[in-house]
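Annotated sample (chain length 179).
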Amino acid sequence: MEAYQTFQQEYLQIPIITRSYTTACVLTTVAVQLDLITPFQLYFNPEAVIKKYQIWRLFTTFLFFGTFGFNFLFNIIFTHRYCRMLEEGTFRGRTADFFFMFVFGGTLMIIFALFVNLLFLGQAFTIMLVYIWSRRNPYVRMNFFGLLNFQAPYLPWVLLAFSVLLGNAVMVDLMGKVY
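Output written by the structure step:
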């Protein structure tokens, strides 16, 4: 019982937008893993949004990082970490401004996705959060897996290189930097 209370206390100490977004991402992935929903019900499909009124696709495209695995873990850790640092740092006490940044960044990504045919925008959204944090903290020294030392503004580019090494599409990472 005490472990549950400790977990609950820690969970409730996470800022509201970070907590809501990361929880939604994890629950969406769990729902896909349990076959309650399929990725085909989540991806960004402008035709389904306009003709079939499937408005949820405008939101669910940001919630799915793929099935459980290294890519999901990597994305959820970075999402939680940099979203939380932004919400507790740059946007401390300005939850509405942080929410507006989420909506504005998501809207821009949806507009760009119309032209580059991306189906899932969660990874691009994570890169956007990392990019904004790195630009707001230009003097922070970073260390990538103990191999590479650099300053924060280079973090998105280091992640891009790492993503390419993992075989991911470059366009996803670049879309996050457009914001």
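Annotation: The chain has a mean pLDDT of 89.
Annotation: The beta strands are 141-144, 148-151.
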